[in-house]
Amino acid sequence: MLRALVYRSLKKDFQSGSLQILMLALVVAIAAVSAVGFFTDRVSRAMQRQAGDLLAADLLLKSSAAIPQSLIDSAHEHGLRTALSVTFPSVVLNAEDDSQLVAVKAVSDEYPLRGTLLTGGLSGDAGGGQIATAPAAGNAQVESSLVGLLALEQDNKLLLGRSEFEVNAVILSEPDRGRDLFQMAPRVMINYADLEQAGLLIEGSRARYALMLAGGEAQLKTFRQWFDAQALPGFELQDAGNARPEIQRVLAQVDKYFGLAAMVTVLLSGAAIAMAVRQYAYQQAGAGAILRTLGASRKTVLLWMLARLLIIAVLALLGGLLLGLIAQTALASLLDNWFQVELPQAGWRPVLSAMTVTVLTLAGFASLPLLRAGTVPVLSVLRQELGGLGVSGRMTAAIALLACVLMMYLQSGDLLLVLILLFGLLLVLLVFALAGAFLYRLMRVLTPRGWSMARFVLRRRMDVTLLQLSVFGLTIMAMLLIAVVREDILQAWQTEIPDDAPNHFIVNIQPDQLPGVEALLRTDAGFKGELYPVSRGRLIAINGENAEQKFAGNERAQRSLRHEFNLSFSDSAPGHNTLLEGEWWAADDEGYWISAEKGFAERLELTVGDELTFQVAGIDRRAKILNIREVEWESFEVNFFAITSTRTLENLPTTYITSFHLPANDRDLITRLVKENPGITIIDVGKMLARVRDIIGRAALAVQSVFLFTLLAGIIVLLSAVQSSQASRMRELAVLRSMGASHKQVRQSVILEFSLLGALAGFLAAFFASAIAWLIGDQVLTIDIGINPMLWVYGTFGGALVVGVAGYLASRKVLTIPPLLALRSSLS
Prior knowledge:
Elements: H1 2-16, H2 20-51, E1 59-63, H3 69-77, E2 81-93, E3 99-107, E4 117-120, E5 130-132, E6 139-143, H4 144-149, E7 157-160, E8 163-173, E9 187-191, H5 195-198, E10 208-214, H6 217-230, E11 235-238, H7 240-243, H8 245-293, H9 298-339, H10 349-365, H11 367-371, H12 378-383, H13 390-412, H14 415-446, H15 452-460, H16 462-496, E12 504-509, H17 514-524, E13 532-542, E14 545-546, H18 547-550, H19 555-562, E15 565-569, E16 577-582, E17 593-597, H20 598-603, E18 611-616, E19 619-631, E20 642-644, E21 655-660, H21 668-676, E22 681-684, H22 686-723, H23 726-738, H24 743-781, H25 790-816, H26 819-827
């Protein structure tokens, strides 16, 4: 009997249209959440995959010792493709016995696993270059600077170790060229199989080995878990996010923005469902009361409503998932060409998120009709006096709030972001409730006579008015928030790497070459930067304690202690560094001081006042940390882990390094610098800069695409909020028209009502959107988000226009129904 009653009542509700609004709200909410989930999941994975181009692999396993065959076999067992590489400094000789320090890179035949290796001819007329693979055995590929240095156009033979190599190509673009940038001399790439015969590596050689890994996400994930469980000393596993500082911040901000967009979508979806459920609850309260008068128990009525909601949830979930999948597939097909790779297939996580959202939204927002199922008297239904919220209503609000928190956390996984948005949400609801009361009092004093009908309608349904004002304000705030954060993220990324960012580095400048190099750069390249002194040293002691023994069990710290790194000295702080703690020493200070980079200090647990001992060219120097500074590694400026006072590195071997911007069509300066200053090394990072800018551009495209989904969810909420009061508005407008109000007056009343609500909601929403955006930028995204006065203009006038038009369009059907028919419909 109950089953038949459930099906009959559902059929009747669908036919009468009373269930359509709730179903539409649920379907759209699930579609929005699943579409954003599907799309952001695919785009995030595509961006991670493309960021892997900068590593020439998806994962990179690094070590200072040769990669054991057991690790390679384990990677193959996990279904991964592998390639080997090793880099080390060496010296090459040409046919005339001219020598040059180079950075040798030996790679296996499978290189590169990701990205593209481009090569050209020795004559330099290769145009855009051609896609190449690893050099064949006995062959070598070199950077263009080495061709001129060793006159390889005339004789393309190089002696490296015990072997002679034939140079058959010039490297135009190497996908992973950016690693260990400042330690690189001109590149010579050979085949991994030639290492043993050439005798290039012996015990104690300063070499860095890498096992490159590529494969599917599942295989990479299981391998990473397996590797972490092994806890192998001396090995480091890197991906694009932690290996490339210039894109690490961008990828992190994209993930945060996607999380914010998903949270806002969930919030808007919950608001749409809340409005639809409110209307449906008032309709079904009467049906439950009538069932009780016919002898049904409260338990029966409760089961009847639960069964109906379960069927509604399943149908909405299926429809929403299908619609969301279609929407993200359509957009993803447009983005495939822009991303230049096929987006990965959608995973199952968005489906689980959509199912969770369905359960939580119904539990949070649809509990009101269940709690009131057996408590509404029939007389109250006939009088249409269903009462206030009461204890059940307050419980419903608490459940809804808890549901919102859970949904937002599940979508973003960022507790701080959830708390910021939740605090803003509660504050918004409180302020909008007060604003609604203020609006009514203001209208009593200031509204013209022609607005009296709109004032009457607002007063007559004050509870609905306050609810709609809150929903309108919340929706506009959410849309403005996403727009503001999107705009500032894009602006921050545009300035992340400016057009005139340094694209060349000069290293190994000798002190006697310093005046000539600086003069040439300033006159021919408009150089305005500095040339920094560099000494190579190792950190051997901290506060008198052996550094390696102090961090014996800390592999991350050991990596910083195992190798020499660049030290510099200066009497003033670099302009592109930020002092976080302590102060800089005076120019005439004779003390022994060190400025430590933030990450370096955190890795080695250093604080201001600690004494460090460095060994430079066999000489020990002690100095105390006077300050900690923050470095923007992604700026492509010259940066150092440690900068000392001049006295600290006095009378020690020193070379100089600098970076500068050179237009792509001005190559003569490079030739002059090399010819006039033998021994210097010029590193061109222009190709790497272009790849980083490309990834940032795609990130911006992804952010704007996700914004469109959230915007659509906001529009649906506005329509749901307008539709939620349609039944009571039909009755009131019918009464007004039966009392002589003209169609024009009624239409003006509707437009004024919604325009006033939209204007007030938009004005307040702009304030909260600015405040919350600033807080999110400062605490979560680490970008500066300023206050834009135009936001109030957009919010106020945009809110009045959009809500006014939406209200009129949604109520147009009500305005055309004859008064008598409208009254009969409202009573039925």
